[in-house]
Amino acid sequence: MIDNHYVLITQGSCPFCQDAIKLLKEKNLKFIYTDMEGAPEVLELTKMTSGHKTVPIIYEVVIGKDMQQPTQNNFIGGLDELKRHLGVEGGA
Question: Which positions of the chain have pLDDT values less than 50?
Fold first, then answer.
């Protein structure tokens, strides 16, 4: 069974991306990430689609309880928004 989790679009050289991954690990939250370091065109398309101009681009995926309740992909934003979302001090 798939549980609620976070999806991150990252770029390997980005310290904010690494901080977001570290924060989710510290909170023992489930997540997956895709490193777009080698796919700049796809990253630019993802930025345009999300409306978020920097990385990381973070979504919270909320799984429905059954087939009658669909999965929700909630756009969080970047690292500062993730910190606010999780109630962590230091979010801008």
Answer: none
